[in-house]
Amino acid sequence: MWLLRTDRxxxxxxxxxxxxxxxxxxxxxxxxxxxxxxQVLLAECRRADRDGSGKNPRSxxxxxxxxxxxxxxxxxxxxxxxxxxxxxxxxxxxxxETINSMYTWxxxxxxxxAYLADVPAxxxxxxxxxxxxxxxxxxxxxxxxxxxxxxxxxxxxxxxxALGNKYLWPGLLEEIxxxxxxxxxxxxPLSSIPISTRMRWASGRQATxxxxxxxxxxxxxxxxxxxxxxxxxxxxxxxxxxxMRQTPDQTLFLWGGLLRPGVCQDCxxxxxxxxxxxxxxxxxxxSDFANVPDLVPIPYEHMSRAFSSFSTNFxxxxxxxxxxxxKLMTSTTLPEFTVTSHGIRARLPVIEPVYMPTxxxxxxxxxxxxACAQSARNVCPYIALLLRPHPGNAPVxxxxxxxxxxxTCLASPSSISVARYTLATSISHSTTIHxxxxxxxxxxxxxxxxxxxxxxxxxxxxSFAHSPTGRPLMQYYVIFPLHVVSRLRRAGFETDxxxxxxxxxxxxxxxxxAVFAFTFSHVLAPGTERxxxxxxxxxxxxxxxxxxxxxxxxxxxxxxxxxHHYAPHCDRPHLVWADDDSSDNAETTKRGGVGNVPETVFGxxxxxxxxxxxxxxxxxxxxxxxxLIVHIELGGLVYEQLRERMVES
Length: 649
Known about the structure:
By secondary structure, this protein is of the alpha+beta class. It has 3 domains: 2-192, no CATH class; 248-321 and 331-452, no CATH class; 475-648. Helices cover 21% and strands 27% of the residues. It is built from 14 helices and 29 strands. The strands form 5 sheets. The protein has a 7-stranded mixed beta sheet with strand order 2-1-4-3-5-6-7. Strands 22-20-29-28-27-26 form a 6-stranded mixed beta sheet. A 5-stranded mixed barrel has the order 12-13-15-16-19. The chain starts with a strand and ends with a helix.
């Protein structure tokens, strides 16, 4: 471990961390000082010392290194660790050792300085649109462990003024990052947080190197493994395999789409080829966990009772005491997952065959019980994976059933997703039990993850529809930020669909009449408290014909088929930005902040939805492609009362 002497910025090697040292957390800039740069500087200063000039290397160091050393020295620290210059990245062995030790180093530090280069000293962090909330520091992969691990995190402004520490704002930090306040303040151990929840914390964060999406999480999951830059997304697969070997927490497998109650049978279809990458047991990236609900692992004795209740719920023969190979299974039998060349070998309680009627045929599938439950009010005693048997006699399965979203009128691949798991309350609504259906323990193989081709970056092909005037229509890539989804979830609202939160997951509006609609139902009153957000392209306008609307109802039917579907008529509010030519629309207002954000308020004093849509600052080519970021805020007496009930429960 290399550390900087704070009085001189000299590098000194330690075999073990010293008892007292400071550590820096920051977002890398363009011209950071490397280990080699600093060694050259130190050598030059030593030569100058021999000449009698007596230069202090700290005064010649980069502005960030110099300022951080001075701040730490003023706080009484002799030693400082700074990742840009305290790691010899030319040594793969040292780099791997450092990455595997980093969580320990941050947790052992006396203080962690979180330097926010984009936050002024006079900023009010709690303000709704504060620079603190929008700081790039909260969006980087590595800073998640740098927030959680240290005992003390002191946030510093861009001119090195103290803003406050994490004990001052645990609730604010939870709102920004999703990380439980009790975890940040060490009232709850990190190890008690379900795997899927910890993955969700990382789902909206970004890393410069794809591999770092996995390596930055090793400490969060107490995993050690070699680092191999160049392996791409295989790094995240290896991380999940290590987690699977070291913890029995099966929430690891519960990412992606959830099959909810009330889905009409016509929604199911054969899995199209472009979605085959979503049918493995393991995820491709942390972003796959963006919209997972609150789940908890349950004790295996509870799982055994749920297994026995299968026969009652489905009206099939009682559970077998032997698995498919004749091996005796008892109430103390434990689930098992092993990595093999054929996929993940799993031993699980299974119910099969079960049939899911589609619009043209019936799809045979199996339900595999997992030792997980919904944490919110524990509505359901168990959760099951949806498994499709691979053609042939081998016990090989893929995960998930394809669903066509009937509440969208966009006939494109983006209107189809894969439901990977379901709750007990959903199973009886959508399945057909066969006379041969039985419940038993089974050893089976589940496709582990995407094909190797999916680990290689592939550019998205762009094809443009044209307006009646012959000009290409705008292509709008629509996403919902993770903090928006988290805020709605805390208020008790869950969506009936998977919400894209990162640009590469975005839903695309690229055809006339194209519409996306997302329905949100309250978990305490799913059949009575719902609202739906619709975004679409207007067929009668040219480039910027984008409209948005919110339909609020307190007595909607449970099926999406019962919800009235709006077509994109011109009487709907159109979104207009300050740089648009068509600025005569009075139905939207411009809100300050990052970019120009059209905002519209729907509802009344009882139920109110603030809908705003902003453009990303990133530049797109070609110019008729835009990334739209949807923000939702709730108000009104009824929604406030529901929020209070969620807090009480």
